[in-house]
Please model this.
Amino acid sequence: MFKQSKIKRIYWMLIPVLVVVSAGIGYRAVAVAIESRPPTVVVVFNLQQVFDSFVERAVLRAGYKELEAEIDAERLVRKTNVEALIAAYDEAGDEDKNLLFDQIQQAMGEAEKYTEFTEREKDVEQSLVLQSLFKDIKAAISTIAESNNYDLVIASDESVELNPNLPFRATNEQISMHRIYFANDQIDITEQIITQMNLELDTKTN
Model:
């Protein structure tokens, strides 16, 4: 009986020690695994510069210019029609003015509705252009990162300057959103991305 109670007492005393030892071994294994990994390769790029380099080309590729020209032409037709009705109203006799006035009101209302509708249509098309361009940028970055074993590619806002004309709240928000305060030029891959996107776009075009 004495031996059994002594064994139990030793057993319960050893459990905390074993837990601590096991934890130490586990932490050491994790530390060794982390130390054995190669250094993380981080690169940056200027997203705005990439967008500026390709947005015009993306707009042309999407046919947005044609849509914009078509909308502008129709707006001009409607505007000319309203102006013609107004000119006719000024020259008309009293018996025709009421009818022409109603026609002017209707034409102006339709022109205004057309403008509102086409502004929304243009906004949607512009959004689709940017979404398509953003997908192309992501694809180019993935290709470059995999080819060069980059672990992390970050859009740098280092070059963004504060607008001196902004009010306090807007300035505070701009500062709060700032993420990159310094990036060595040697880890900037903006030109690589632009080159890769040119290659991919040329391939799609051909």
Observations:
- The mean pLDDT is 83.
- The two ends are 91 Å apart (CA to CA).
- Strands lie at 42-45, 152-155.
- The CA atoms of residues 186 and 205 lie 32 Å apart.
